[in-house]
Target: glycerol kinase
Amino acid sequence: MSKKPDEVLIGSIDQGTTSTRFIIYDRSARAIGSHQVEFTQFYPEAGWVEHDAMEILESVRVCMAKALDKATADGHNVDSGLKAIGLTNQRETTLVWSKSTGCPLYNAIVWMDVRTSSICRKLEKELSGGRTHFVETCGLPISTYFSALKLLWLLENVDNVKKAVQSGDALFGTIDTWLIWNLTGGVKGGIHVTDVSNASRTMLMNLKTLEWDSTILKTLGIPAEILPKIVSNSEVIGKINTGWPITGVPISGCLGDQHAAMLGQACRRGEAKSTYGTGAFILLNTGEEIIQSTHGLLSTLAFKLGPKAPTNYALEGSIAIAGAAVQWLRDSLGIIKSASEIEDLALQVESTGGVYFVPAFNGLFAPWWRDDARGVCIGITRFTNKSHICRAVLESMCFQVKDVLDSMHKDAGEKGEAKNEKGEFLLRVDGGATVNTLLMQIQADLLGSPVVRPADIETTALGAAYAAGLAVGVWSEKEIFACEERTKNSTIFRPKLDEELRKKKLDSWFKAISRTFDLADLSL
Model:
């Protein structure tokens, strides 16, 4: 097949919690080649979740090579057409490695890992502001969720990390930092950076200055010299070094996965998106204003599209377990053989039959913030079958999103939300689970407002591509945020549920939530 001349292509590395993808987009933002690889999840103890950072690195290498082969086989001139690479990644996941050897000093501690509970409790007691001591500075409460606590655990418990810090050989980073360092040379001059969105999830960055906060570092005893430089989401960081399937191409976009999805969904001020993956993450763009939540949400970065560009902030509600509950049904219980099977089973019943499932496997994130919570399934009778359980699992994802959006509405107020000409607030959705049409209808029913699913549901990778393309002049901001283009082929789900029944179901859900508290110490 003859190659297409004068193509403009952008690559996107999408490094998630369970898999890595590499996607190549053309100038019209159409995917013309991709490959995905799953990697291993390690659970060394109850509540602990780890990744092998070297396996993640290899997954990127394989995905790059396979996607390039596919695009080239289809006649695309990747060698001359690829103008830039964007990167998006699972946030908060924490790694420390050796500057001299390039080897990780411990497995990456994943964002949902809760081993730092005792460190959190200790800090809450010692610090004058308790759990919210750093919120005014970094927007985040003290929680097992964030990188700073995971780093403290490594510094306190892993001898190799302690020695490397003392000798000046340690580098800290989230997964974006690890990948960029290796892609740009590793031990031979790799660039040690992170972007503002990933940095905003460490609990160490000042939200206003966008720099590491010296007071927080001093309070926690974290050495500044192991931290990466903070850059914007859209700028040329460096070029991919030799030893990779692609070489010499600039890395010019980097965002945490949820921020990339916001950009991929082109969320402007007052607009919100919900990404359904391993967890679920709802972000509302608050423009250049930092809104401090009083309803259990986080203040965070949305994106900063260039070194001199204005900073967009967001309110975020993070849900630890969404799609992971479906994986649990498949892998741990064997109720389903594939994730796609859950929709067919759930459709076999008209309701959950009074069953309510709360997937608080590692505690509850927003808006509850209870790390003492554990999963419950209530309302089970002899009538209950696996279809009821499957439907309850789908509803649990939607109830959790509803809880977060209710908090957002309270924090942002009427002026902070954008509505359509009918006065409706639209929730934009994306992520793998949104292929489930029943899930999307349940979401609209429980919200009582429309849900908009784009034609391309994998907006995370697209957002990273947009950021990279923007930095090298492939796209303009106007093109990225063009309203009519992004909604042209979207599917809109409108609520069908009776208001009285919606209220009763929500009351039952809150009853189920209350049953999850104070269960962390149950005997084995």
Residues 293 and 411 are 6 Å apart (CA to CA). The radius of gyration is 22 Å.
